[in-house]
Amino acid sequence: MRVPEALKPWRPWLDWFDAEIVDLLGDLLLRLHPMLGAFRMRAQRGVAEPEGIDDLRRRGHYERLLLSEWALADEVPEEFDRRAAGGEHLFLSPKLVAREADALTVAVFDTGPGQLGAARLVHVAMWILLAERAQAAKARFAWGVLGAPGVLHPADTPERLKQLLQARSLTPGGPASDSAGNAQAVRDHHEREWRRALDEADPSPGERWSIGAHAAGYGLGHRVDVSRAAEQQLAVTIASRQARRELRLALPPPERSSALLRGEFERVEVSRLTEVTRGARGQGKLSLKQPPLISWGARHIAVPLAGENAAHVYRLPSSEATRLQPPKTTRWRKGKSLVAATLTERHFAGVIPHAEWLEGWQFDGMGRLPLVPPGDLDVTTGKARLLPCVWFNRGSGYRHLLLLSSQRKLLSWKRVGLEHKAYEVIADQVLAIARSDVERMVYLRQDEGHLHLHAIHRSQVLERVALLGPVNAAFLSGTCLVDRWQGGYCVEQIVGGHGGERSSIWRVFARIADHPPSDYEIVLAGDWKVVGLSQPDGDDIGLIALRPDRKALMRIGAQGRSVLYESPSPISTVSVAVDADLIALVDLQGRLVVLRDGARKMLVYTGGDDG
Predict the structure, then answer these.
(1) Measured distance between the N- and C-terminal CA atoms of the chain, rounded to whole angstroms
(2) What single string gives the DSSP state of each residue in 217-256?
(3) 3-29: per-residue pLDDT in tens?
(4) How many C-beta atoms surround the C-beta of residue 270 within 10 A?
(5) Can you tell me the distance from the alpha carbon of 403 to that of 389, in angstroms, rounded to the nearest whole number?
(6) How much is the pTM?
């Protein structure tokens, strides 16, 4: 394959790729190469040693005297002595070579969640640049991943580069990380281990590179920070004690880069594997407006598709080691929109408004529902958020659909036997609803200066606490245990600030087994976005919130704040499970991320630019 003259130094590596990938990589190589600076080889050491013959000379050690001169000593001793006295003997002069130290360059790549997606394009380019740089200096190049300190790999075949691409990890720092601490602490720990391992290596590398997410300092020697700068840009900073250089890179279209990031270097591989990969991801782009829906029991997740009357339903893997299966795509008729939706176990279902009636779409046995007064339910479609609803199906004898309207009214449709019962308004001023078990649903409402937590089935009041003033939002977390609520609930009240700024007071009520009931307040600025309530952690239960830059998911409790997840792209929507320790989010790149166990484990990472 012909490559432009400017790319000739990297041709041995570019020959691995299809022409379209060469064009993509070539631009990155030419932009990044001037930023690397001068190669710093370790100083030479060792004594000069003979290697071959350099010349014949009149002076030298008699061990290197020519054989023809020794022949004179045997045949004509007087001539041998005369030539010795006159300095006329000829000696072999060896070529002396000073042995260099074994020069070595090492690059350590952060393959954690902060470097998933387009950031890995820079990893590929740096891998090639450093390999060629070392080869040109007659040095060796080896690489490793941050989460496996001391483990080095050669960089001599395309399979080795694919190994780097496949090393992406869903835990901070790489696959060896299982820490519950924040990502920065994990990176710092791994870098200390790498530094110790490289110091003890023989030879110890002269050039050391840390390539990955932004962090303080110079890493192992040279730090390459890669992060999103704008929607279609990467910011790259190369820093060392000698210099600091910064660069903005425009991102190529996803269809050009996704094959490379999946390790598909040749066109024939791309055509053969694209269908399989897309099948695993599901056709269509995930909605950035509608939060994912989490089923009761947290075994399935549904995500509506952008610009389509369809949704993907994913069956969640049982562990990180289990492969995510292709989603099931559910579609409803064109020209119709949902006003409410839920997951009935593994089926996506909702309410579709018609001119004179409502359709209980995919609610078995419900069919047409009577249209309700506008004061109870606004059926205007195209809203930013689908209304929440809960569905109970105990066979032909009893079916029950409950829906929380935007007017904060809890609406109910029942079918008992073969007849429909007309709908009813169960309660008003309802703030939040959630299914709690097979037969019960709970709802939180405000009335006469109190919060009431009700259970539907036995129509009982589980909690009643005093609360004055209007409530803007509320969340539930927990489950019913006999006639008690185990978990917590929270409400937001808006307060004014200086200069018209608004802030929120969040009242959090914890009801944790073996601990007395407690509550506390958290004050947040108006640019924070609370998305749910965490599961109990000891005797504490905290808010789940998006940081103002929307690039981090935080847990905010009575005992402090912690980072649950840092995203390479701003987070668009988030859902927090009520009855399980599970969080699902979609970022602005269209990736679905599912976290569990306090966000320490990632079950799903799919969609976006690179699948």
Answers:
(1) 29
(2) S-TTSEEEEEEEEETTEEEEEEE-SS-EEEEEEEPPPHHH
(3) 788 898 999 999 899 888 888 899 899
(4) 18
(5) 4
(6) 0.61
